[in-house]
Each structure stands twice: as structure tokens, then as C-alpha cells.
Amino acid sequence: MNTRSRTSATARRLTLGATAAALLVLTACSGDSDTSTTVAAPAPSSSAAETSAAQPSASTGGAAATSARPSSASPSSSGSAGIGAQPEWANPVTTPGTAIARIAAGDLTVEVFQVGTTAATDTGSFADPGTGQPLVAIGDPLVFVNYVVTNNGDPVDLSASLVTIDATYDNWPYLTGMDGVSDRDLFTAQGVNADGLAAGAFREPSVYTFGTGQTYSFGENFEYQPGGAISFDVSYTPVDATGDLLHAQRVEATGSTFTA
User: Fold this and answer.
1) CB–CB of 236/113 below 8 Å?
2) Does a structural domain hold residue 13?
3) Distance CA 182, CA 111 (A)
4) Is 10 inside any structural domain?
5) Which of 111, 98, 61 is nearest to 217 (CA)?
6) What is the pLDDT of residues 75-129, one digit of tens each?
């Protein structure tokens, strides 16, 4: 899928199991002869998917990075997320679905909602290296998830990537991230924003202030595995007034749960 965490770039978790072998090469689908490849390996065992965090040096003065494994999220009805004020750069917040996880990443909270399932209307972006078949084919079952992100702390300036969230099933066999489709009509039908940033909100310098108590939402879709063990990697890197990334203040967190 090309629309992954929308305002988030779609870099995927590059965790390799200690005994990973027999690497596969994942080839991006393309209508022409030019293709890019990504080396893929078996997904790590569940023990390798425990929460982790990178903490900034104390000398930087930045807030320490945090991580959390979400507590068991009880099912909730549509619109149950606590919604604060909306940043002026964001699309209107939507809250459909049933809560399956809550992840704390520094002062930010990400609530993950499983929204619904539908059939793929297009092929995905990648093909299996062995068969040459797309990882997502027309008609394959997809599940939509919605991410509701809230700032519980001081205002933080973010880049256009905002908060990146990477979903990966524990049994996903490729190093690249999970695939999906970018059909905007499907997002609309599910009541999920395809992007966190509203149309026309891009600016230079690329500084998007996420204020205290503010909330925004966006979603994605990927292969549906009923009852599948899945992890969500959350990360964000603050920026200074000129839009330069403050890497020492990067925050990362991981939460694990199961799809319904």
C-alpha cells in the first residue's frame, strides 16, 4: 500500500530475528520493466516483538523517549475515543470502530480502532518474489484500522510526517511493511481519513504544532487476518522552528494486540 500512515512516511520495522535465514527478495509491482527490490526475512518471534524505546541523551535537554505495551483494550463503540481540540492543519477527526489497543509514546497517546473489512478494489504495491503474484490482489479481504492520536503533554512541533504508525502481523514473512490499497473511496466508505494533514495544509518550513489536548486521526488498510497477532510501532521526531529534525528527541513505542 502506498498510503501508509499517510502523514507518516511508510518506513517499516526492520527487526530481524537472530536466527533469520533464507532471505527472500520482495519485488515491487510495476507496470513497466523497472522494479525496485527489498530484502525480506521471516518475521521475528513474538518474544522479539516486546516494547522498545530510544532515549535521547540527557545533555540534549529533550524529553526522554518512552515505550509501552498497550493494556488490554476493552471493546468500545464507534466514537468512544476522547476527542480534544483539533489542530488547524488536520483533517476532521473520525472515531469509527472498536478499540483494540492503546499505546503511550512519550506524551502522546495512540488509540487503535478496528473499523471494518472490505474487498480490495485494486492490487497492492508489492509482489511475492517466488510466485510473482501481488501480495494484495483484487477481491482480497482487507481490514481498516483507525489511529486516534492525542497530545497529553506540552505542545510539540512535528514534521509533515507527524506520527508514524507501522502495523505488522507477527507472521508477516517480508521485511518490507504490509501492503494495502490506496483507493480513497474505500477510506471514505469506512469513515477513515487517508491522511492526517488536511488538503492544502503543507507549508514551509515544515512545522506542525501539535498542541496540548489536541487530537487528530488517520487510518490505513492491509490484509485481514481474523484473530491475527499484530504489533503497532509508533514513532515521531520533533522539529525546531526551521523544520529541522531533532533526532535526539525522537520517541518510539510498540504495542501488541490481536485483530477481531
Assistant:
1) no
2) no
3) 22
4) no
5) 111
6) 343 444 567 899 999 999 999 999 999 999 999 999 999 999 999 999 999 999 9
CA distance 117 to 228: 14
pLDDT higher for 175 or 2? 175
Per the structure, the complete domain to which residue 29 belongs is given by 24-258
Q: Please report whether residue 82 resides in a domain.
A: yes
Mean pLDDT in the chain?
78
Q: Distance between CA 148 and CA 167 in Å, rounded?
A: 14
Which grid coordinates are listed for 240? 525546531
User: Alpha carbon of 56 to those of 61, 83, 157: distances in Å?
Assistant: 8, 30, 17
Q: Let me know if residue 84 belongs to a domain.
A: yes
pTM of the predicted structure, to 2 decimals = 0.72
Number of domains within the chain: 1
Burial grade of 84 (CB within 10 A; 0-12, 13-18, 19 or more) = middle
Asked if residues 194 and 40 have their Cβ atoms less than 8 Å apart, the reply is: no
Q: Is 90 helix (H, G, I), strand (E, B) or coil?
A: strand
Cβ–Cβ < 8 Å for 34, 21: no
| CB proximity list for 229: less than 8 A, separation 6 or greater | 46, 169, 170, 171, 256, 257, 258
